[in-house]
Amino acid sequence: xxxxxxxxRYPFSSYARKEIESHVPLLKNDFLGAEAKKRLLNVLVNxxxxxxxxxxxxxxxxxxxxxxxxxxxxxxxxxSYVTGRFAISFSKSFYNRVISPKQEIDGELxxxxxxxxxxxEKDGGNYLVDVHSxxxxxxxSIDYNMLYREVREGKARLSFDELKRLLQEAITRHLLSIxxxxxxxxxxxxxxxxxxxxxxxxxxxxVSFREGDNPPxxxxxxxxxxxxxxLGHYARWSLAVYLMNRSVEYDDMLRIFSNSPDYSERIxxxxxxxxxxxxxxxxxxxxxxxxxxxxxxxxxxxxxxWGGKRNAGK
Length: 314
Hints:
Number of strands: 4
Structural class: mainly alpha
Low-confidence stretches: none
Helix content: 55-70%
Shape: globular
Number of helices: 16
Mean pLDDT: 87
């Protein structure tokens, strides 16, 4: 595999950074810039990053440059929502369309994981990854909790799909860590702002919680949403159940969750309706603590008791 093909297949890699250095003049090409803007808009509106397959060297070069232009726009925008939306959309597309068992056989998977300091050993049909790398890149899901993970001699045992998911998370974290720039490049800044101006305006949630209305664990989750950060599955579920039990309307719940970088109205709407229809009970503080969501010793046994405790203390 030549250097251009390697960079084209893995544009987030160190190989791609070296390759793009030989194509710097194309970063301000009008045609490629217009395509980069179109793709970034698609990411922000639809949460999808199209990965185009091609055997043409010219097309591969253009695809690499388009990716680089998008990264330059994001760097100069310094907008956490845009950064998160792109990181998750790209890594999800990469996970769904690129990673396959063939890459493990060809050694590409090992090479990709080494980009993030992850190494593995084969264990029959499974993989052994050092615990440090596993904890660093494990998704925010109960399925990846160390309490439920088989560990052997300091190595966590993963299936192929779990190893893929670990790589997806590593790519996401890498794309989220865009370096801050002291001086903005007005060309890419202008391009990025042009894309932002085309995004349909969202209506804000009509929720008027006052300071101290919610327990610290819920305040933390709401703040994470305001900061456009992704919550793990159990954290989202807990927040939705809490909001339902606080009589927050469906549309307002949807608007709150729309701050998430991987937001999909179809998926979020289905999950919120499912919670409302089944009238789930709020998990206890013990459960919240078990899943790493408890952030303070409140002296209550369920987050919904917070209002009563607060009023009793007045």
